[in-house]
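thread from #wetlab-drylab

HS: before we spend reagent money on co-crystallization trials with iron/sulfur cluster, can we at least see a predicted complex? here's what I'd submit
DV: go for it
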Amino acid sequence: MFKSFVESFKNIFKKPLTIDYPKEPIKRASRYRGLIVYDVNECIFCDKCEKVCPPKAIVFHQNMDGTKKYHYNEYLCIFCGECVRNCPKIDLALTHSEIKPSIGTMDDKIFTHWRQTYKEAKQSRIDYKESKKKDNSL
Ligand code: SF4
Ligand code: SF4
């Protein structure tokens, strides 16, 4: 009884563990895994992020001039951090932002569009390889 009274008395002077949200903003952990941010100027186009992404939320489109275009689906992303961890330019080409992940959506338009983007990106690689083969055989 006395012990719990002392404990309660001590707690009066302690800083609360909770915050006065929404007046006080929530502090993110130092390695908070928010939305992925990509920097084309730092990317070396190794495709590692695409290969390691479990839900296939990243895909690169191969342009015929040799450049590649990055695509990212934030609705498919599960914020596992594998792409960032495996990126040779970690925290430069790919970083986790502090932006809260979007809440999952069942909007079919997004997924239909993404399926199309993904399919086209994969096809663009095949087309590029074919055209390179043709060029080399000439
Ligand atoms: S955080 Fe995970 S799910 Fe999201 S893009 Fe990176 S590898 Fe894919
Ligand atoms: S892993 Fe990093 S460097 Fe490689 S393609 Fe992805 S973003 Fe670019």
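DV: The pocket of iron/sulfur cluster (ligand 2) is lined by residues 43-49, 87-89, 93-94 (CB under 6 Å).
HS: ok that's useful, forwarding to the group
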